[in-house]
Fold this protein.
Amino acid sequence: MEVKIGVQFAPRELALESAQSPAEVERTVAEALSGRDGVLTLFDEKGRRVIVPIDKLAYVEIAESSPRPVGFTAS
């Protein structure tokens, strides 16, 4: 699943592929917003950690990954 994170005052969004379900990511974001830690922490498919301060969070977009076409196709 693809997750895009908008960060205030950053020219580009953060994008990562996550093995978590959309519901799990949504729950993690909601817990971070209501928690006292002050950070959102997500993990990508390779185990890398992405940490964003909640006060700089602009948006989180959760989308199912679409398979990318490889090579040439005839329509």
